Amino acid sequence: MKKMKKVLINLIICCMLFITVTSSAKAETLPTDDITLFEENLKSDLLDSGISNPEVKVMLPMESQSSKVEDEVEELYEEKFADVIEKPLEEVKSDDIDQVYEDVINDEVEGIDKEDVKEFNELFYTKQEEVEDSELVEEIKEELAIESTSDNFVEENDVLIEVSGINDLGEEFTTAIGFKIGGNSFDIITEADTEDNQVFELETEKLSAEQLTGTLTNLDSNESVEIDTDSNEFQASAFWVPALGVYVGYTMLQALAISVGAATLIYLASQGLINIISGSLWVAGKVANSNTKNKKYVHYKASRAFNSKGLWVGPGQSKTKAINRIASNLDCWSVGSVNARLLATGASRTGRYNYHKAHKSYTKGIRTFSHYHRYEHGGGHSFYGGGTLW
Q: What are the residue boundaries of the structural domains of the chain, listed by start?
Protein backbone atom coordinates (compact mmCIF):
# COMPACT_ATOMS: atom_id res chain seq x y z
CA MET A 1 0.00 0.00 0.00
CA LYS A 2 2.81 2.41 0.87
CA LYS A 3 4.55 1.56 -2.40
CA MET A 4 1.35 2.18 -4.32
CA LYS A 5 0.85 5.49 -2.55
CA LYS A 6 4.38 6.49 -3.54
CA VAL A 7 3.58 5.80 -7.20
CA LEU A 8 0.43 7.90 -6.93
CA ILE A 9 2.32 10.79 -5.38
CA ASN A 10 5.06 10.50 -8.01
CA LEU A 11 2.42 10.59 -10.73
CA ILE A 12 0.85 13.69 -9.22
CA ILE A 13 4.23 15.40 -9.02
CA CYS A 14 4.95 14.39 -12.62
CA CYS A 15 1.60 15.80 -13.72
CA MET A 16 2.32 19.13 -12.05
CA LEU A 17 5.70 19.15 -13.81
CA PHE A 18 4.05 18.71 -17.23
CA ILE A 19 3.90 22.50 -17.36
CA THR A 20 7.66 22.98 -17.31
CA VAL A 21 8.76 19.78 -19.06
CA THR A 22 6.28 19.77 -21.93
CA SER A 23 6.04 23.50 -22.50
CA SER A 24 9.78 24.10 -22.58
CA ALA A 25 11.36 20.90 -23.89
CA LYS A 26 8.72 19.82 -26.41
CA ALA A 27 6.71 22.86 -27.47
CA GLU A 28 9.31 24.29 -29.85
CA THR A 29 9.75 21.05 -31.80
CA LEU A 30 6.31 19.42 -31.68
CA PRO A 31 3.02 20.95 -32.87
CA THR A 32 0.87 21.34 -29.77
CA ASP A 33 -2.36 20.59 -31.61
CA ASP A 34 -1.31 17.25 -33.12
CA ILE A 35 -3.47 14.47 -31.64
CA THR A 36 -1.09 11.63 -32.47
CA LEU A 37 1.85 13.39 -30.84
CA PHE A 38 -0.32 14.11 -27.81
CA GLU A 39 -0.98 10.38 -27.45
CA GLU A 40 2.71 9.52 -27.72
CA ASN A 41 3.84 12.27 -25.34
CA LEU A 42 1.35 11.31 -22.64
CA LYS A 43 2.31 7.63 -22.96
CA SER A 44 5.96 8.59 -22.51
CA ASP A 45 5.26 10.68 -19.41
CA LEU A 46 3.05 8.00 -17.85
CA LEU A 47 5.85 5.50 -18.41
CA ASP A 48 8.32 7.86 -16.73
CA SER A 49 5.96 8.20 -13.75
CA GLY A 50 6.01 4.46 -13.05
CA ILE A 51 3.04 3.21 -15.10
CA SER A 52 3.84 0.08 -17.14
CA ASN A 53 2.42 -0.60 -20.61
CA PRO A 54 0.62 2.76 -20.86
CA GLU A 55 -1.84 3.15 -23.72
CA VAL A 56 -3.55 6.37 -24.80
CA LYS A 57 -6.36 6.69 -27.35
CA VAL A 58 -8.09 9.84 -28.56
CA MET A 59 -11.39 9.20 -30.34
CA LEU A 60 -13.78 11.69 -31.92
CA PRO A 61 -17.39 10.50 -32.01
CA MET A 62 -18.46 14.19 -32.25
CA GLU A 63 -21.94 13.10 -31.25
CA SER A 64 -23.20 16.23 -29.49
CA GLN A 65 -22.09 18.33 -32.47
CA SER A 66 -23.85 15.91 -34.83
CA SER A 67 -27.02 16.21 -32.74
CA LYS A 68 -26.89 19.99 -33.13
CA VAL A 69 -26.51 19.61 -36.90
CA GLU A 70 -29.48 17.25 -36.94
CA ASP A 71 -31.62 19.76 -35.06
CA GLU A 72 -30.61 22.61 -37.39
CA VAL A 73 -31.34 20.54 -40.51
CA GLU A 74 -34.80 19.64 -39.21
CA GLU A 75 -35.55 23.23 -38.24
CA LEU A 76 -34.37 24.65 -41.58
CA TYR A 77 -36.24 21.99 -43.54
CA GLU A 78 -39.54 22.61 -41.77
CA GLU A 79 -39.15 26.38 -42.11
CA LYS A 80 -38.09 26.61 -45.75
CA PHE A 81 -38.27 23.36 -47.71
CA ALA A 82 -40.94 20.99 -46.41
CA ASP A 83 -43.79 22.62 -48.37
CA VAL A 84 -41.69 22.70 -51.55
CA ILE A 85 -40.17 19.21 -51.55
CA GLU A 86 -43.27 17.63 -49.98
CA LYS A 87 -41.47 14.65 -48.46
CA PRO A 88 -40.53 13.64 -44.93
CA LEU A 89 -36.97 14.78 -44.26
CA GLU A 90 -35.69 11.21 -43.96
CA GLU A 91 -36.77 10.56 -47.57
CA VAL A 92 -35.10 13.65 -49.05
CA LYS A 93 -32.22 13.03 -51.46
CA SER A 94 -29.53 15.28 -52.92
CA ASP A 95 -31.42 15.35 -56.23
CA ASP A 96 -34.37 16.97 -54.45
CA ILE A 97 -32.16 19.80 -53.22
CA ASP A 98 -30.66 20.24 -56.69
CA GLN A 99 -34.16 20.56 -58.12
CA VAL A 100 -35.10 23.22 -55.56
CA TYR A 101 -31.95 25.17 -56.45
CA GLU A 102 -32.86 25.05 -60.13
CA ASP A 103 -36.40 26.21 -59.34
CA VAL A 104 -35.04 29.11 -57.28
CA ILE A 105 -32.81 30.22 -60.15
CA ASN A 106 -35.81 30.11 -62.50
CA ASP A 107 -37.92 32.13 -60.01
CA GLU A 108 -40.37 29.25 -59.64
CA VAL A 109 -40.23 29.20 -55.82
CA GLU A 110 -41.15 31.93 -53.34
CA GLY A 111 -39.67 32.41 -49.87
CA ILE A 112 -36.40 30.63 -50.65
CA ASP A 113 -33.24 32.13 -52.13
CA LYS A 114 -29.99 30.60 -53.36
CA GLU A 115 -28.24 31.15 -50.02
CA ASP A 116 -30.99 29.20 -48.23
CA VAL A 117 -30.41 26.25 -50.54
CA LYS A 118 -26.62 26.45 -50.16
CA GLU A 119 -26.90 26.52 -46.38
CA PHE A 120 -29.27 23.57 -46.31
CA ASN A 121 -27.02 21.64 -48.69
CA GLU A 122 -24.01 22.38 -46.44
CA LEU A 123 -25.71 20.80 -43.42
CA PHE A 124 -27.72 18.11 -45.23
CA TYR A 125 -26.76 14.46 -44.92
CA THR A 126 -28.27 11.49 -46.74
CA LYS A 127 -29.71 8.39 -45.12
CA GLN A 128 -26.65 6.43 -46.25
CA GLU A 129 -24.33 9.01 -44.71
CA GLU A 130 -26.27 8.76 -41.46
CA VAL A 131 -25.79 4.99 -41.52
CA GLU A 132 -22.05 5.50 -42.07
CA ASP A 133 -21.92 7.83 -39.06
CA SER A 134 -23.71 5.24 -36.92
CA GLU A 135 -21.21 2.60 -38.01
CA LEU A 136 -18.36 4.93 -37.02
CA VAL A 137 -19.85 5.36 -33.54
CA GLU A 138 -20.22 1.59 -33.18
CA GLU A 139 -16.56 1.15 -34.17
CA ILE A 140 -15.55 3.62 -31.46
CA LYS A 141 -17.58 1.67 -28.91
CA GLU A 142 -15.78 -1.52 -29.89
CA GLU A 143 -12.41 0.22 -29.75
CA LEU A 144 -12.94 1.37 -26.16
CA ALA A 145 -11.22 -1.00 -23.77
CA ILE A 146 -13.32 0.11 -20.81
CA GLU A 147 -16.73 -1.44 -20.31
CA SER A 148 -18.87 1.66 -19.99
CA THR A 149 -21.60 1.47 -17.38
CA SER A 150 -23.36 4.23 -19.29
CA ASP A 151 -24.82 3.40 -22.71
CA ASN A 152 -24.68 7.09 -23.57
CA PHE A 153 -20.98 7.64 -22.87
CA VAL A 154 -20.09 7.66 -26.57
CA GLU A 155 -23.40 9.05 -27.86
CA GLU A 156 -23.34 12.15 -25.63
CA ASN A 157 -19.74 13.27 -26.14
CA ASP A 158 -17.60 14.79 -28.88
CA VAL A 159 -14.13 13.82 -27.67
CA LEU A 160 -13.06 10.67 -25.80
CA ILE A 161 -9.66 9.99 -24.24
CA GLU A 162 -8.89 6.54 -22.86
CA VAL A 163 -5.78 5.89 -20.74
CA SER A 164 -4.78 2.45 -19.47
CA GLY A 165 -1.76 0.95 -17.75
CA ILE A 166 -0.37 -1.29 -15.02
CA ASN A 167 0.85 -0.13 -11.61
CA ASP A 168 3.99 -1.40 -9.87
CA LEU A 169 1.99 -4.21 -8.24
CA GLY A 170 0.93 -5.57 -11.63
CA GLU A 171 -2.66 -4.33 -11.31
CA GLU A 172 -4.39 -3.03 -14.44
CA PHE A 173 -6.50 0.12 -14.64
CA THR A 174 -8.30 2.11 -17.33
CA THR A 175 -9.70 5.63 -17.27
CA ALA A 176 -11.99 7.01 -19.98
CA ILE A 177 -12.81 10.72 -20.26
CA GLY A 178 -15.49 12.26 -22.45
CA PHE A 179 -16.62 15.84 -23.07
CA LYS A 180 -18.74 18.02 -25.31
CA ILE A 181 -17.37 21.01 -27.21
CA GLY A 182 -19.16 23.97 -25.67
CA GLY A 183 -19.98 22.08 -22.47
CA ASN A 184 -18.56 22.68 -19.01
CA SER A 185 -18.15 19.18 -17.59
CA PHE A 186 -16.31 15.91 -18.18
CA ASP A 187 -17.60 12.35 -17.90
CA ILE A 188 -14.98 10.11 -16.26
CA ILE A 189 -15.25 6.31 -16.00
CA THR A 190 -12.61 4.28 -14.16
CA GLU A 191 -12.03 0.53 -14.25
CA ALA A 192 -9.54 -1.17 -11.93
CA ASP A 193 -9.14 -4.97 -11.90
CA THR A 194 -11.82 -6.46 -9.61
CA GLU A 195 -13.25 -3.07 -8.67
CA ASP A 196 -16.67 -2.12 -9.99
CA ASN A 197 -16.57 0.64 -12.58
CA GLN A 198 -16.91 4.10 -11.07
CA VAL A 199 -18.66 6.87 -13.02
CA PHE A 200 -17.92 10.53 -12.27
CA GLU A 201 -18.88 13.95 -13.51
CA LEU A 202 -16.31 16.72 -13.22
CA GLU A 203 -17.86 20.17 -13.50
CA THR A 204 -14.99 22.51 -14.29
CA GLU A 205 -14.58 26.12 -13.28
CA LYS A 206 -10.95 26.60 -14.35
CA LEU A 207 -8.72 24.41 -16.49
CA SER A 208 -5.24 25.29 -17.69
CA ALA A 209 -1.69 23.96 -17.65
CA GLU A 210 -1.40 25.46 -14.18
CA GLN A 211 -4.78 24.77 -12.61
CA LEU A 212 -7.76 22.44 -12.45
CA THR A 213 -10.68 23.69 -10.37
CA GLY A 214 -14.11 22.11 -10.17
CA THR A 215 -16.44 19.62 -8.49
CA LEU A 216 -15.93 15.86 -8.88
CA THR A 217 -19.11 13.85 -8.23
CA ASN A 218 -19.48 10.08 -8.02
CA LEU A 219 -22.70 9.52 -9.95
CA ASP A 220 -23.37 6.21 -8.18
CA SER A 221 -23.10 7.50 -4.60
CA ASN A 222 -23.76 11.19 -5.37
CA GLU A 223 -20.75 12.08 -3.16
CA SER A 224 -18.84 15.17 -4.28
CA VAL A 225 -15.49 16.76 -3.56
CA GLU A 226 -14.12 20.16 -4.53
CA ILE A 227 -10.85 20.08 -6.49
CA ASP A 228 -8.35 22.93 -6.71
CA THR A 229 -4.90 21.81 -7.81
CA ASP A 230 -3.52 25.33 -7.55
CA SER A 231 -4.16 26.16 -3.90
CA ASN A 232 -4.16 22.57 -2.55
CA GLU A 233 -7.03 23.60 -0.30
CA PHE A 234 -9.91 21.15 -0.46
CA GLN A 235 -13.32 20.77 1.10
CA ALA A 236 -12.50 17.19 2.02
CA SER A 237 -15.26 16.44 4.54
CA ALA A 238 -15.01 12.69 5.24
CA PHE A 239 -12.74 12.09 2.25
CA TRP A 240 -8.97 11.85 2.02
CA VAL A 241 -7.95 14.11 -0.87
CA PRO A 242 -4.36 14.19 -2.15
CA ALA A 243 -3.14 16.80 -4.60
CA LEU A 244 -5.53 15.91 -7.45
CA GLY A 245 -8.58 15.06 -5.36
CA VAL A 246 -9.40 11.40 -4.63
CA TYR A 247 -11.92 9.63 -2.39
CA VAL A 248 -10.52 7.78 0.63
CA GLY A 249 -13.07 4.99 0.28
CA TYR A 250 -11.35 3.55 -2.78
CA THR A 251 -8.29 1.35 -3.12
CA MET A 252 -5.04 2.99 -4.14
CA LEU A 253 -5.49 1.47 -7.61
CA GLN A 254 -8.89 3.14 -7.96
CA ALA A 255 -7.39 6.36 -6.61
CA LEU A 256 -4.64 6.10 -9.21
CA ALA A 257 -7.20 5.69 -12.01
CA ILE A 258 -9.05 8.81 -10.88
CA SER A 259 -5.83 10.80 -10.54
CA VAL A 260 -4.71 9.77 -14.03
CA GLY A 261 -8.02 11.12 -15.35
CA ALA A 262 -7.49 14.48 -13.67
CA ALA A 263 -3.85 14.56 -14.76
CA THR A 264 -4.88 13.86 -18.36
CA LEU A 265 -7.14 16.91 -18.34
CA ILE A 266 -4.28 19.11 -17.13
CA TYR A 267 -2.08 17.56 -19.81
CA LEU A 268 -4.71 18.24 -22.49
CA ALA A 269 -4.69 21.89 -21.44
CA SER A 270 -0.89 22.11 -21.35
CA GLN A 271 -0.71 20.64 -24.88
CA GLY A 272 -3.22 23.16 -26.19
CA LEU A 273 -5.98 20.71 -27.04
CA ILE A 274 -8.62 22.10 -24.66
CA ASN A 275 -9.38 25.34 -22.84
CA ILE A 276 -12.29 26.98 -21.06
CA ILE A 277 -13.58 30.08 -22.87
CA SER A 278 -16.43 32.02 -21.24
CA GLY A 279 -17.33 29.04 -19.09
CA SER A 280 -17.41 26.40 -21.84
CA LEU A 281 -14.91 23.90 -23.25
CA TRP A 282 -13.20 24.81 -26.52
CA VAL A 283 -10.65 22.76 -28.45
CA ALA A 284 -7.71 23.21 -30.79
CA GLY A 285 -8.59 23.58 -34.47
CA LYS A 286 -6.92 20.23 -35.14
CA VAL A 287 -9.62 18.49 -33.13
CA ALA A 288 -12.49 20.06 -35.09
CA ASN A 289 -10.65 19.50 -38.37
CA SER A 290 -10.23 15.79 -37.56
CA ASN A 291 -14.00 15.22 -37.48
CA THR A 292 -14.75 12.51 -40.06
CA LYS A 293 -18.53 12.45 -39.56
CA ASN A 294 -20.86 13.24 -42.46
CA LYS A 295 -23.24 15.00 -40.10
CA LYS A 296 -20.95 17.88 -39.14
CA TYR A 297 -20.33 21.62 -39.21
CA VAL A 298 -17.69 23.34 -41.34
CA HIS A 299 -17.83 26.64 -39.41
CA TYR A 300 -16.96 27.11 -35.72
CA LYS A 301 -16.75 29.88 -33.17
CA ALA A 302 -13.13 30.95 -32.59
CA SER A 303 -11.16 32.96 -30.06
CA ARG A 304 -7.62 34.25 -30.57
CA ALA A 305 -4.81 33.36 -28.17
CA PHE A 306 -1.43 35.13 -28.10
CA ASN A 307 0.56 31.93 -27.62
CA SER A 308 1.73 28.76 -29.39
CA LYS A 309 -1.89 27.59 -29.83
CA GLY A 310 -2.99 30.79 -31.55
CA LEU A 311 -6.64 29.90 -31.73
CA TRP A 312 -9.32 28.13 -29.73
CA VAL A 313 -12.29 26.61 -31.55
CA GLY A 314 -15.74 26.42 -29.96
CA PRO A 315 -19.11 24.91 -30.93
CA GLY A 316 -20.01 24.54 -34.60
CA GLN A 317 -22.40 26.91 -36.35
CA SER A 318 -24.44 27.07 -39.53
CA LYS A 319 -23.21 29.43 -42.22
CA THR A 320 -25.86 32.05 -41.41
CA LYS A 321 -24.94 32.13 -37.72
CA ALA A 322 -21.22 32.20 -38.53
CA ILE A 323 -21.71 35.12 -40.96
CA ASN A 324 -23.60 37.01 -38.26
CA ARG A 325 -20.73 36.35 -35.87
CA ILE A 326 -18.19 37.81 -38.33
CA ALA A 327 -20.48 40.80 -38.94
CA SER A 328 -20.57 41.33 -35.16
CA ASN A 329 -16.76 41.67 -35.19
CA LEU A 330 -16.19 38.24 -33.64
CA ASP A 331 -14.04 35.43 -35.01
CA CYS A 332 -14.75 32.09 -36.70
CA TRP A 333 -12.64 29.17 -37.87
CA SER A 334 -13.70 27.09 -40.88
CA VAL A 335 -12.66 23.83 -42.48
CA GLY A 336 -10.74 25.03 -45.55
CA SER A 337 -10.09 28.40 -47.17
CA VAL A 338 -13.18 28.31 -49.41
CA ASN A 339 -15.51 27.99 -46.43
CA ALA A 340 -13.66 30.76 -44.59
CA ARG A 341 -13.95 33.07 -47.61
CA LEU A 342 -17.70 32.46 -47.83
CA LEU A 343 -18.13 33.90 -44.34
CA ALA A 344 -16.19 37.05 -45.21
CA THR A 345 -18.13 37.68 -48.42
CA GLY A 346 -21.41 36.87 -46.69
CA ALA A 347 -20.70 39.39 -43.91
CA SER A 348 -19.75 42.12 -46.40
CA ARG A 349 -22.34 44.64 -47.56
CA THR A 350 -20.82 44.44 -51.04
CA GLY A 351 -20.06 40.71 -51.10
CA ARG A 352 -16.29 41.30 -51.20
CA TYR A 353 -13.41 40.28 -48.96
CA ASN A 354 -9.81 40.98 -47.98
CA TYR A 355 -7.30 38.14 -47.60
CA HIS A 356 -4.34 38.04 -45.21
CA LYS A 357 -1.67 35.39 -44.89
CA ALA A 358 -0.72 34.42 -41.34
CA HIS A 359 0.70 37.62 -39.82
CA LYS A 360 4.36 37.37 -38.90
CA SER A 361 4.99 37.38 -35.17
CA TYR A 362 8.14 39.02 -33.87
CA THR A 363 7.66 37.11 -30.62
CA LYS A 364 8.97 33.55 -30.74
CA GLY A 365 6.49 30.76 -30.08
CA ILE A 366 3.37 32.57 -31.32
CA ARG A 367 1.02 30.86 -33.79
CA THR A 368 -0.94 32.93 -36.32
CA PHE A 369 -3.49 31.92 -38.96
CA SER A 370 -4.31 32.86 -42.53
CA HIS A 371 -7.70 34.52 -42.64
CA TYR A 372 -10.25 36.65 -44.44
CA HIS A 373 -12.00 39.89 -43.49
CA ARG A 374 -15.16 41.28 -44.99
CA TYR A 375 -14.20 44.09 -47.39
CA GLU A 376 -15.34 46.78 -44.96
CA HIS A 377 -13.01 45.08 -42.46
CA GLY A 378 -14.16 45.53 -38.87
CA GLY A 379 -12.80 43.24 -36.16
CA GLY A 380 -14.16 39.89 -37.33
CA HIS A 381 -11.65 37.31 -38.60
CA SER A 382 -12.56 34.27 -40.69
CA PHE A 383 -9.67 31.88 -39.97
CA TYR A 384 -8.82 28.51 -41.51
CA GLY A 385 -6.02 25.94 -41.50
CA GLY A 386 -3.52 24.94 -38.83
CA GLY A 387 -1.64 28.21 -38.58
CA THR A 388 2.07 29.08 -38.62
CA LEU A 389 4.22 28.82 -35.49
CA TRP A 390 6.85 31.59 -35.47
A: 2-60+132-272, 65-125, 297-389
